[in-house]
Amino acid sequence: MALIPIPRQASNIDKAIPVHGYRKAAPGDLIDLAIESRIARIIKRSAIGGDDPFFVADLGQIVRQHRRWIQNMPGIRPFYAVKCNCDPTFLKVLADLGTGFDCASIEEMRAVLNLGVDPGRILFANPCKAPAAVAFAREVGVLRTTFDNIDELDTIKTHMPDAQLLLRIYANDEGAFICLGEKFGAHLDTTEELLARAWELGLNVVGVSFHVGTGATNPSSFCNAIKDARLVFQQAERLGFHPKILDIGGGFQDNCFESMAPIIRDAIRAEFPTGTTVVAEPGRFYARSVYTLVCRVISRRRQLGSAAASGIPDMLYQNDGIYGNFMNVIMEKEIMKPHLLKAKKSKAGNLGNPRASEISEKGNEMTKSTEHRYSIWGPTCDSTDCVVREVSLESEVKVGDWFKYKDMGAYTSTTATQFNGFSSECDIIYVNSEALPDV
Ligand SMILES: Cc1ncc(COP(=O)(O)O)c(C=O)c1O
Question: What is the pTM of this model?
Answer without folding.
Answer: 0.90
